[in-house]
Amino acid sequence: MQRLAIYWRVWKMSGTNALQVAFVNRGTNLFFLLGKSFRFLISLLFLLLIKEQVTTVGGYTNDEMVVFFLTYQLIDVTSQSILRNVYQFGSQVKSGELDFLLIKPLNPLFRILTDKPDINDLLFLFPMTIGSAYLLSTLSLSITPLSAVLFAVLFINGLILALALHIFIVAIAVSIVEIEGVVWLYRDITALGRFPVTIYHESLRLALFFLVPIGLMTTVPAQVLLNTKLSVSLPLVFVITGATLILSVLFWKYSLKKYSSASS
Q1: Which residues 6+ apart lie within 8 Å of 195 measured at CB?
Q2: Does residue 120 contact residue 36 with C-beta atoms inside 8 Å?
Q3: Which residues, in sequence order, are CB contacts of 227 under 8 Å at separation 6+?
Q4: Which residue has the higher pLDDT, 125 or 177?
Q5: What is the pLDDT of residues 160-201, one digit of tens each?
Q6: Which residue has the higher pLDDT, 42 or 205?
Q7: Sequence ranges of the domains in the chain
Q8: pTM for the full model?
Q9: Taking CA 165 as the corner, what is the angle to CA 210 and CA 60, rounded to the nearest 5 degrees?
Q10: Element (H, E) at 61
Q11: Which stretch of DSSP H or E encloses residue 57?
Q12: CA-CA distance, 215 to 221, in Å (whole number)?
């Protein structure tokens, strides 16, 4: 518990520093929030326009499609707000900053993943959550207390999967340094989770459930909330999540063994 308290204080200090930077660049951050809100509203408008023309998509009603989109948005924004520093990790490898992280008493992976939380995404998370809750209340859905609790559990599970995938990204960065392409590939694949993965071709569907488990991050939690048939059983979801996390950490350790420092 004492060790966890230390990590919490370090993360809180990083968050405070990021908040101070955000207040210094108030104008830039305001436009960022406006742009993010506009994109969120445009996506919702797109779903509402589809609702006027199509009654079902892949066996799901339009109201259910909104739930899939909101689930994706919640998990994506939450994970990005916490793990944003991953996007800058390539420059830390090139500059040699990784060398200094490796000799610190704190776990370097913790610093790499959480050192600079995205305050803009954290601020956007609050109005987005409130707006999503209000929108859900206007839809014709049969959400039960049990499904809400299971959704909360799978939401945390989705964040763990996002954590594991980001660990894979930083492990790759140790070797190739330039990870912008890997990051954008991850973002593009994740964007497929805006809609239920079950609507895609079977080969892509299998890949999104078991190879890059975006479907477990976004589709299964929404299916639980809607009390619909699950594409993957809950025990298998947790097994895959645990295996993905373990493999990502092992790959990170393997990458460190191959790392020869910036000086070489």
Answers
A1: 57, 58, 65, 68, 69
A2: yes
A3: 142, 143, 144, 147
A4: 125
A5: 999 999 999 888 888 776 677 788 888 888 988 888 898 888
A6: 205
A7: 2-258
A8: 0.85
A9: 50
A10: strand 60-61
A11: strand 56-57
A12: 9
